[in-house]
Each structure stands twice: as structure tokens, then as C-alpha cells.
């Protein structure tokens, strides 16, 4: 199992963001051996949320050879042409290290701000992904769909002629996994929305969908995003963070307990082993507090137990 980090884009403690803070965080992650850095996407959220594309661009020079990943971006909210333009720039500036993760998003507020009907998100997403392929790959044909069209690659083109790989986010529904198999280069699951048991079942459904789409199961990546993390031996701290996270996400804290990495190192390692057995090969950690210290503690206390 490989590990990446989410940039701390949410103002969880009211401190905001200091200049250079994201770069220092990426320095720590790179030096500890994390292989990728990811960003999620919201226009509006329960807490202040820093723009993911801008934040990711700000740490390109600090990321070394880490992969840059959107986990996920919202092409329907941003518009596929605008997202493709930003993705190509990130791919160029990073020397071809971008993986473009996309999804529909689950916030009606984002769609209201973008002036797009929330009920249209699924057919628009299918259209947007096909348009992204055309915008980002010189070998993709022109595309004209119900909502979006793309005549050809945008210039400047990405660093790689075929464009960055496009991974698709899904919580594991049958329709979502068919979309992943039909249109994606990999599957991005969500830790707090899918238990290891649910991921294992979804992996089986994804394999069937890939075969029906005429694609190979082997080598099709499956990663787990939004893995909220706070390694602690304190039961009081564990319960406090689970309660706060449950309130922010509108999830039952007891349900989150077996899905995220909040608690003692051995419990965190057991959760990761269960996800690995379910077929997950990469996990993106998102520390809930003390982000740099938590990355260090994870690599010191949790990773060696796997």
C-alpha cells in the first residue's frame, strides 16, 4: 500500500493559513516518503475551504517527484474547459506528474454558486469527462455531447501527449462503478463513505464492469481519498475528534470509527490492513489537527505495523 497526503485545505481550527505553510507541510510529507499530494474541491463548505487547484499549484516546486492528484475536482462546477486548462498547466509545470481525479461532488451549494442544476450532475459529468479527454489528449477525437463539446486539444497541451490519467470518484454505487469502468483510468473511493467490507464488494462489481467494458482488471488502480487521520493513544482525544468530524460531515461517529484513522496506532494499522485486503493500493491521509506532527507520527507508529 502506498500513501499520499491531502493538502490541509479546510480551516478546521479557525487559524486560517499562513504564507508558506502549505509548502512546509509538503516538505515534511516529501521527506517522510509520502508519494503523492492531493486536493479536494468545493466552492462552499461548512468551514472555510482553500481553492484546491490554486493550492496545488503553489506547492509544485516543493513536491519533488511526488505525484500531484486532484481527489477530486468538479468539472461540472468548474466547467470542463476551465478545468482542462488548469490541469494542463499543472501537468506542464510538474513535468507530467498530474493525475486528474474528477467527480460530481455532493454539495448542492457548489452547484447553486455555479448556476448549474444539481439534478443534472450525473449526465453532465459523463459529458464533461469525455470533453476533458479531448481537451487534454491530442489523440482523442472531437466530442460533441448534450451539455459540452470539445473540438480538440487546448494549447498549451499537457506534458504527456496522451494527457494526465483521469481517475473517477465514486462512493461505490453500481452506476458509479460502471462510469469508472467506462470512462476512467482508476477509481477514487472515499474512506468515510465506504467501509472495508463495502470497498471489497465494490471491487468485485468494478471487476465485472471492467470486463463488460472490454478492459483488463489487472493494473486498474483503486485509491482511497479523505482518510481523516489523528493518531493518538488518548481515548478522550479520539472521542473528541470523532465527534467533531461526525458533526462536520453529518456522519455517525461510531460509523466513522472503523473507517478512518482516528485512535491508537494499532487500530489505525488494522483499519489500513482491512482496506488493503479489500483491494485498495493507495491511501490519502488528511490530518485533523497538528498536520505535520501527524504525518510524522503516522510514518513512525502506524506504517511499520503494516
Task: Please tell me about this protein's structure.
The protein has helices at 21-32, 52-58, 75-78, 80-93, 108-114, 121-136, 174-183, 196-212, 235-249, 253-257, 265-278, 291-302; strands spanning 2-6, 36-39, 67-73, 98-102, 143-144, 149-150, 166-169, 186-190, 221-231, 261-263, 282-287. The strands form 2 sheets. An 8-stranded parallel beta barrel has the order 1-2-3-4-7-8-9-11, surrounded by 5 helices. Strands 5-6 form a two-stranded antiparallel ribbon. The protein folds into 2 domains: 38-165, Luciferase-like domain (TIM Barrel), CATH 3.20.20; 170-306, Alpha-Beta Barrel (TIM Barrel). The chain is built from 12 helices and 11 strands. Strand 8, helix 8 and strand 9 form a beta-alpha-beta unit. The mean pLDDT is 96. The relative contact order is 0.13.
Amino acid at each position: 500500500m502506498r500513501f499520499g497526503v491531502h493538502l490541509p485545505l479546510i480551516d478546521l481550527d479557525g487559524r486560517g493559513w499562513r504564507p508558506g505553510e502549505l509548502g512546509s507541510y509538503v516538505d515534511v510529507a516529501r521527506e517522510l516518503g509520502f508519494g503523492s499530494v492531493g486536493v479536494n474541491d468545493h466552492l462552499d463548505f461548512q468551514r472555510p475551504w482553500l481553492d484546491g487547484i490554486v493550492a496545488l499549484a503553489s506547492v509544485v516546486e516543493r513536491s519533488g517527484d511526488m505525484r500531484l492528484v486532484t481527489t477530486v475536482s468538479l468539472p461540472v462546477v468548474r466547467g470542463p474547459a476551465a478545468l482542462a486548462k488548469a490541469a494542463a498547466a499543472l501537468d506542464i509545470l510538474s513535468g507530467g506528474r498530474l493525475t486528474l481525479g474528477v467527480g460530481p461532488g455532493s454539495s448542492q451549494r457548489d452547484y447553486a454558486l455555479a448556476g448549474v442544476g444539481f439534478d443534472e450532475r450525473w449526465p453532465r459529468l459523463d459529458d464533461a469527462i469525455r470533453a476533458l479527454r479531448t481537451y487534454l489528449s491530442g489523440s482523442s477525437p472531437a466530442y460533441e455531447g448534450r451539455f459540452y463539446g470539445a473540438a480538440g486539444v487546448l494549447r498549451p497541451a499537457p506534458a504527456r501527449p496522451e494527457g494526465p490519467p483521469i481517475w473517477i470518484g465514486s462512493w461505490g454505487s453500481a452506476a458509479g462503478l460502471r462510469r469508472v469502468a467506462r470512462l476512467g483510468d482508476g477509481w477514487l473511493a472515499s474512506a468515510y463513505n465506504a467501509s472495508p467490507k463495502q470497498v471489497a464488494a465494490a471491487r468485485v462489481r468494478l471487476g465485472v464492469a471492467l470486463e463488460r467494458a472490454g478492459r483488463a482488471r489487472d493494473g486498474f488502480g483503486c485509491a482511497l481519498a479523505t482518510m481523516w487521520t489523528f493518531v493518538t493513544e488518548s481515548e478522550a482525544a479520539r472521542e473528541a475528534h470523532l465527534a467533531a468530524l461526525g458533526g462536520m460531515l453529518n456522519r455517525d461517529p461510531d460509523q466513522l470509527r472503523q473507517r478512518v484513522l482516528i485512535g491508537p496506532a494499532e487500530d489505525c494499522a488494522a483499519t489500513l490492513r482491512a482496506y488493503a485486503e479489500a483491494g485498495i493500493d493507495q491511501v490519502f491521509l488528511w490530518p485533523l489537527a497538528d498536520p505535520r506532527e501527524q504525518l510524522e507520527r503516522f510514518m513512525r507508529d502506524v506504517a511499520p505495523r503494516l
